[in-house]
Each structure stands twice: as C-alpha cells, then as structure tokens.
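Input.
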Amino acid sequence: MIGYYVHHRGRGHLHRALCVARHTDTPVTGLSSLPRPERWPGAWVRLPLDTGDGGAPEADATANGRLHWVPTRHRGLRDRMGAIADWTARTAPSLFVSDVSVEVALLARLLGVPVVVAAMRGDRSDAAHRLGYDIADALLAPWPADLPEPGWPSRWSAKTVHTGAFSRYDGRHDGDRAGSRAGDGRRRVLVVQGAGGSDLSDAQLTSAAAASPGWRWDVLGGPGRPWDPDPWPRFLAADVVVTHAGQNAVAECAAARRPAVVIPQDRPHDEQRATARALHTAGLAVVRPCWPPADEWPQVLDLAVRTGQRWDRWAPGDGARHAALLLDRLAARTPEADGLCV
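Output.
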C-alpha cells in the first residue's frame, strides 16, 4: 500500500496525484482535506483541516524556524496528524508520498515509512525544506533533467527522479483543434488564472483586450468566475495561452502544445519565478516578469505565435508513468535492498 498526501490548496497537487495514482500497480490511498475525487482509484482518508482552530492565536507555528506549520496546542493540527498516524499504524504502508508538506513527510518517516517528496522549484534552502528533502528516500521532480533547479546540493540531485511535466491531459486527443479564428476573424487568447489565487485584476484584462482588437480573449478561473472542470477544449481553441507559472498550469498548456506567454506570480520561495526562468532559458515560451502594459499586448501575442511551441522537451507525455514506476519500485523494495538506485 502507498499513502499519498495531497495538499488542499489549489488544484495542482490533486491533479498530479490523480495522474500518478492511475498508473501505479500498487494500491494507493489518498490522504487530504479535499473530498475524494470521483476518478480516484483507491481509498481516501478525509483529513481535518489544521487551520481555523478558533481558539487562542497560533503560537510558535514554525518550531523556532525549523518547520513550516506546527502551532502549539492547536486542535486542528493535532487531529490531522493523529489521523495520518492512525491510518499509518493500521495500514502499515510500504511507501508514503508527500505532495506537499514537510511536516507530513517527517511524520511518515518518524513512523518508519520510506518517503517520496514531490519537489518544487524555487529557493528551498530554508531549514524546513532542507529537512524534508534530506529525509526523503527520493525526490520526484516534474520537470526535465536537462533544466535542473540550480543550486541544489548534490545529496538532493543524487536521489532526484526527473519525469518531465505531466498533466491530466497527457495523451488526450479530442480530434483536431478548433479553427484558429473566431467567427469574426479574430485569433484567440486564453488567460489561465489559478485556483490558488491570482494577482491579475479585471481592469488589467479589460485594458489588454481593448488594446489588441485582433484577438478574442477568454479567461479561465480567477475570483468571481465559475470553475471549469474540463477546460481542455478551451486550450485547444487558443492560438496563445497566457498563464501564470504554476507547475500544473504550465503542464496543461504543454499538453495542449499551445504557444504561451508565461507571467509568474508571487509565491513563497519564488517557485513561479524559478519555473519561468527555466522556460525562458529553454526558449519554450515568451516570459514576462509582470503583466505588460496594455499597449504592448499585440506585440507580445505575435511574438508568442512566432516562438511557437516546442513543449516535447518540457512535457514528453509519459511523466506520470515514470513517476508511478518509481513509486511501485520503492514500494516493493525490501530492507535488504536499501542500495537500490532510484
């Protein structure tokens, strides 16, 4: 049995877990505060939230800077960790995947379970990330090996498995993509906003659309807009995708093989800026450090069309299968085979 912790913020962690779990031969149990998704292939443990305790203000939430979120005397945290520990004690999993929580990874390892940590780009040199990455048996990196995260210590690189980016749309072909022109002759641009929050305002969108009359703008996600459970047709219909630099959003754009403008948003540890730098270095997308002024958008979109797409390098299409193979291999490993190369 493999235990798979899925963080509840945004949708990227869940989509990644779904991609991997459907390819494993070993049964997988999901553990998350999110409700069990319909397509989840195994059991699901619904965890209490470790926020909103309603009692006294959180005290020493970082354990003197060694962890990320462990407030003392916090019922939600206690119940959450207790539920994970209880499941682990009853089930005796052969492997535990954390995507992503240093504290959950550490708990599983303290209970004697080998751990795989879903790696993330950006500056992970803080004490908590160093601990989480150090105790992991393997780091799962959903980006190409030839575009590594700079500055990683050799002890991390030695146990990292690079799968390339992967998404729920890998291998999906719903026929030919829609025509490149809307009914009025304009090309199409799809703006992707994240479920985990957006820095983009409606005024910025309105001004950009007004300044590029040759384009029809479609906006996916963001505050006040309905959640689209299957935006694949909208990706296929786009001549250019404008997206933040979250791992999942970039992976879905890559799966659709659409030209892209990538604008990183502020996130902890500069995660999105690190992804944007890698894309810029590889020449895979037009990257801008922030939302361009309205009058620059016609040139930015035309540049993206000319840049085209070479997403095979970033997302070869079989990343989830490689990730599942890693998990199956580690789950089957016996104590006598500790020297097995990941």
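The two ends are 18 Å apart (CA to CA).
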